[in-house]
Amino acid sequence: MDVAARIHEQLSNCGIKLAASLPDDWVAPLIDRIATDNRIRHVRVAREAEAIAICSGAFFGGVRAVALMGATGLLTCTGELATLNLRHQIPVFLIVSQRGSIDDHRIYQEVQGRRTIPLLQAYDFPYHILDRPDDVSSIPDAFETCRMQKRPFVLFLTRRLVKGGGTA
Amino acid sequence: MRAREAIDLLARHRGDAIAVCALGMAANEWWAATKSEDSFYMHGAMGFAASFALGLALSLPQAPVWLINADGSLCMNLGCLLTEASQAARNLKHFVLDNGVYQTVGGLPMVNDGRTDYAAIARAAGFPRARSIEALTDLERQLPAIVGEDGPALTVLRLEREQGFLRTPPMTYEGPEMKYRFGRALERRFGIEVFGPQGY
Q: Long-range contact list for A9-12, CB < 8 A, 24+ apart?
């Protein structure tokens, strides 16, 4: 089973029924896979903060949801995460590519690499990093922690996890 | 028509719709007219009441959901119209309070200075139904049909510009309390579980 299939399986185990997404190339295989699952309502958005607010609305409909995006997209929606989710203590579960790592040799991802986690720490948003295939089994625990923490929770996917070894 | 007149009329035709209100004038006026706890009043995330309402509508297809949006918020996230049109939630109705100014901060003009036709934008984004209404009498006449039609549907309410600040006070609770009041109201009404057995 490939990594996207493993993550998809664990999201199903969490009871996820709605996914809102804007792709980057690391999360695209997972989004493609979820889009073919007719048990999950898939919402393609034009901007990442839409995904945050859609998942927040779904929370009040009693529907478990996930927002999927790249690290750059995460940076664009920190204001909404703060003024909607932090302000009202609404949990929102995000799966985000951890761009800008030392094995991510894309110059336009460099800024995100060293600033994203300090930014999350400044907002006091919890996060967890999936780096190896065996880590994927921790997704249900991460989802439950998100619910208990009542705030944004970011689950990062590393390049090693989604692309295998080597650099790009 | 004036904002309060339009909101009062919407409130009288609301029936059992759940409302999601953009922050500022829309939220404050809806609270003044309805005092309803099965409404969610945005306090931030300007522009994203539309996305919140869409997520709610998709998750509760049995519930009519009304979005009370405002022109300033709509312009901050015009892309929401593409997403809303593509998802085609039949239970979602989108109202836009359009007065051309940022009323909550004192009536400062918006970027477009009255040039923009939001209903036309919505139609171009894929909305099957969108219209603008200027007169209160026209709104009163058309509302029963608007309430009865399938979403996604967008209705722009062209409001008179009012001078200075509208001093309508905001709802009397906020933050986590709003979350729990709104969530518990939906749990009672629809028999759903928003919060788990331990309350989170």
A: A10/A136, A10/A137, A10/A139, A10/A140, A11/A40, A11/A66, A11/A139, A12/A37, A12/A39, A12/A40
Higher local confidence (pLDDT), B161 or A7: A7
Predicted TM-score (pTM) of this structure? 0.97
pLDDT 10s digits, B48-83: 999 999 999 999 999 999 999 999 999 999 999 999
With CA atoms as reference, the chain B residue closest to A148 would be: B200
C-beta separation of A27 from A3 below 8 A: no
A82 CA: distance to closest CA in chain B (Å): 8
Residue in B closest to A63 by C-alpha: B59
Characterize B72-84 residue by residue with b for buried, 16 or more Cβ atoms within 10 angstroms of its Cβ, and e for exposed. Answer: bbbbbbbbbbbbb
Interchain CB contact of B199 with A (< 8 Å): no
CA distance A73 to chain B (A): 15
B117's CB contacts (< 8 A; 6+ apart) are: B132
Q: Does B9 touch chain A (CB under 8 A)?
A: no
Tokens of A16: 């996820």
Nearest to B33 by CA among B185, B178, B188, B169: B169
Residue A52 near residue A92 (C-beta atoms within 8 A): yes
